[in-house]
Amino acid sequence: MKSTFTIFALLTFALLSYGLYQGLVAAPTEATMKDVQRIFYYHVPSAWTAFLCFFANFVASIWYLAGRNPKADAIALSTAEVGVVFCTIVLVTGPIWAKPIWGIWWTWDARLTSTLVLWLIYVSYLLLRRYSTAGQNPVLASVLAIFGAVDVVFVYMAIRWFRTQHPQPVVGGGQGSGLDPRMMNALLINWAGFLALALLVIWLRYRLERLRQQVEEAHAMKAIAGAARGTR
Amino acid sequence: MKWVYAAYIAAWAIHIVYLLILTRGYQRVRDDIDDLNRS
């Protein structure tokens, strides 16, 4: 198991390094935005990875609600946390890209606002899980996660449904959209790298959560054993 | 290129901060396991 993890970690590092080279050097310079457009190779794959993490969180939350399986709960928490990390990157790299191109850091258009709302929903999910002491905590969080997943669809579709300051889709946007093959190559390599990184970190976070659950269970068993000894 | 570097550095800084938080989480669980084994 350990060697598989090491090999996967090395593969991830190689993919990310190659992606960095593609994004900074190999991909052609865009005609209107010039080099600033290279932020695209980190911004877009991070967004796609965040969407996938939140989708996995949605599936794990339903699984948990259906069977109260602690493994499903651990997967839900891990994917939400890693999704928030990637969504934070989207919200930080977006304004850094917007400032030199639009002249402003932020605007309240449908895509940007719904992305911020998405981030807030999952941050509140994590805060609920972190600070709530109620026994039904994972159940409440799972219900919140289902609402969060609805916003993922809204964020994705916002640039198709509304006229936004945010550019229209260049991938899967129908007629008139599209990318230079070398740009597409850089985009997909970076996405593969970020997906591999997300899987790696989700696995680490899942293992940590399972360990924490087991420690909690051991504490509870110990308390029950202590109480039983006291009543004898 | 300064905007590109700023974005890339910010992205990696966020990843590194999260990995440090995870490492601290493992350390805490390991301490808890040690406490359990001791008591």
Describe the secondary-structure layout.
The complex is a heterodimer of chains A (about 230) and B (about 40).
Chain A: H1 2-26, H2 40-67, H3 70-102, H4 110-131, H5 137-161, H6 181-231
Helix pairs in contact in A: 1-6, 2-3, 2-5, 2-6, 3-4, 3-6, 4-5
Chain B: H1 2-38
Describe it for me?
The complex is a heterodimer of chains A (232) and B (39). By secondary structure, chain A is mainly α. Chain A has a domain at 48-168 and 180-212. Chain A has six helices and no strands. The termini of chain A are far apart. The chains are: A mainly alpha (232), B mainly alpha (39).
Q: Which bin fits the share of residues in helices of chain A?
A: over 70%
The largest sheet of chain A is: none
**Which shape of chain A, going by the Cα principal axes?**
elongated
Shape of chain B: rod-shaped
> Major sheet of chain B: size, sense and barrel closure?
none
The largest chain-to-chain contact, stated as pair and per-chain residue counts, equals: A-B, 32 and 20 residues
Report the span from N to C terminus of chain B: 57 Å
- Would you count the extended β strands of chain A for me? 0
Give the ordered list of helices and strands of chain B. H
Low-confidence segments of chain A: none
Order of helices and strands of chain A: HHHHHH
Distance between the termini of chain A: 45 Å
User: What is the radius of gyration of chain B computed over CA atoms, rounded to a whole number of angstroms?
Assistant: 17 Å
Number of strands of chain B: 0
The helix count of chain B comes to: 1
User: Number of helical segments of chain A?
Assistant: 6
Whole-number mean pLDDT of chain B: 93
Average pLDDT confidence of chain A is 90
Residue fraction in strands of chain B: under 5%
Catalogue the unreliable spans of chain B: none
